[in-house]
Amino acid sequence: MFIKSPSLKITLLCSAMLLTACDNASDTAQPSAEMEQAAAEATTNEAAAMESEEAMIARAMGIHERVITLDTHDDINVSNFTDDLNYTMDTNSQVNLPKMVAGGLDVAFFIVFTGQGEMNEEGYAAGYANAMAKFNAIHWLTEEKAPDQIGLALTSDDVRRLNSEGKKIAMIGIENAYPVGTDLDNIKKFADLGARYMSLAHNGHSQFADSNTGERVDADGNPTEPWLYNGLSDLGKEAIPLMNKYGIMIDLSHPSYESNMQAIALSKAPVIASHSSARTLSQAVSRNLEDDVLLAIKANGGVVQTVAFASYLDRDKNSAYREVLNALHAEIAESIGFEILGFGPRRSMSEAGRAAYNEGFAQVTKLAAPRLEAEVYAVAPPVDVNDFADHIDYMVNKMGIDHVGLSSDFDGGGGIHGWNSAAETHNVTIELVRRGYTEAEIGAMWSGNLLRVLDEVQEVSREMLAAE
After folding, report:
1. pLDDT at residue 46, rounded to an integer
2. Is-contact 404 449, C-beta < 8 A?
3. Range of the domain at 186
4. Most buried among 104, 197, 242, 284, by the most CB within 10 A?
5. What is the pLDDT of residues 20-60, one digit of tens each?
6. Residues 453 and 349 occupy one common structural domain
7. Residues sharing a CB contact under 8 Å with residue 88, sequence separation 6 or more, in sequence order
């Protein structure tokens, strides 16, 4: 089991040294090399445990600077990819280049997200057009607008090369395979455009898979969205080997339990969950993963990217906080004549409409900021980086350090107190250091584990293509 507390590590190590000394007492009066090394390590750990908060933060910031930090889920709005408004500026979005620089976020997976629509040719065509607009936006940023500041990575070697050049790094994930339609040749096309992971469903069943939303029931306990396939559809079962073939990581964050277990069984390569947390710690959230799914991903060699989404981490705590915060926002919005909308209506807006809404809401939050500490946090504390780290600890203990990563779901509903934009990314590393994780472990969670899975997925792809 992972030991979070440095002081506990010291206690256990010193106990082990004492037992070793007793065992060796009859053989020699001189300390062994192993004992001397253990004593030195204990001294180092004790010093770390006794370091001041200021010194700990300085040490954490050094680690943060040295490791490659990678966030696997950052939604985008194409309205932020124009000459007049783009990520070279400090836009209202949670992620942009100035914020990435400020918080030390090296790699952002920009997401080609398409909401679930009607499963017919008209719907698929609209979904495809939406996806292509987002692919084009990412390529425009990295190839035309700011290639001196950010590059598109297709491999782990690209990530390391671009990082060594001092550039920020974009990667591409597809949230919902709906834009593929029924033309499976689009899987290769999307891979060629740079997609490196894809989920087979989002919120709502797709042509490929049942969604986690099938778990929802009404007041009488009846399903509000009955299962269509009890897992993957026949088309979904065809898509899995094609994703393996073309080097696209299979993302389990939104499909149903049965869909995910079937996908793991069918895949010849490791899988990922790009932005999910632990169901055991927040049972009411269908987007979180059950323990047996976590263990199946571990056995498959995959990785779960723990997500900093407040309601997924602690729904009750977040609900209490949101109630108080919403009351404050409502008061301010009324005073300036702004109408606050729910998540559903915002999702259905056009890109331009959502951008205008976000600008108005930003004014509300700006006016609320000076009142938060006294009127909100003191009454109902927000879900924060500490709650996020609790899920990380749980999954490390359940799966092992090699199968856990980090994600935010920024600009898609994610963000917590302390990590509410890319500018605050360093706070995650500080909390991980505070809990006793080593630099190697932190580097693995920030990027090493995900890039290892990408390497293995791409090796499977090469083998499958070579066998044709």
Report:
1. 60
2. yes
3. 68-313+385-466
4. 197
5. 444 444 444 455 666 666 666 665 566 555 789 999 999 99
6. no
7. 96, 97, 98, 145, 146, 149
Which helix H or strand E contains 195, and what residues bound it? strand 195-199
Same domain flag for 278 and 168: yes
Q: How confident is the model at residue 11 (pLDDT cuts 50, 70, 90)?
A: very low
User: The domain spanning residue 444 has which CATH number?
Assistant: 3.20.20.140
| 3-state SS assignment for residue 144 | helix
Structure tokens at 314: 């602690």
* Same-domain check for residues 80 and 32: no
pLDDT surpasses 80 at 406 = yes
The residue type found at 93 is S
Q: What's the rounded Cα separation, in Å, for the pair 431 and 308?
A: 13
Same domain, residue pair 235 and 339: no
**381 secondary structure, DSSP code:** P
pLDDT for 41 equals 60
Maximum distance among all Cα pairs of the chain, rounded to whole angstroms? 84
| Residues facing 172 on adjacent strands | 110, 195
DSSP letter, residue 448: I
Residues 321 and 371 in one domain: yes
Claim to verify: residue 298 and residue 345 sit in the same structural domain: no
Count the residues in the chain. Answer: 468
Question: Quick check: helix, strand or coil at residue 77?
Answer: coil
Q: Average pLDDT of 73-90?
A: 97
Indicate whether 366 and 447 sit together in one domain: no
CA distance 93 to 411: 6
d(CA 344, CA 307): 21
- Phi/psi for 198 (5° steps) reads -155, 135
Q: Is the Cβ–Cβ distance between 34 and 17 less than 8 Å?
A: no
- Last residue of some domain: 382, 417, 435? 382
pLDDT of residue 149: 98
Place of tokens 């300390």: 31
Radius of gyration of the chain (CA): 24
| pLDDT at 14 (0 to 100) | 39
416 touches 310 (CB < 8 A): yes
Where is the domain boundary, 382, 407, 427? Answer: 382
Residue 40, pLDDT score: 62
Global pTM? 0.86
Residue 95 near residue 108 (C-beta atoms within 8 A): yes
Q: Is residue 78 in a domain?
A: yes
CA distance 108 to 169: 6
Quote the number of domains for the chain: 3
What is the pLDDT of the chain when averaged over all its residues? 91
Other Cβ atoms within 10 Å of 466 Cβ, number: 7
What percentage of the chain carries pLDDT values higher than 70? 90
Note the pLDDT of residue 164: 98
- Judge whether 81 lies within some domain: yes
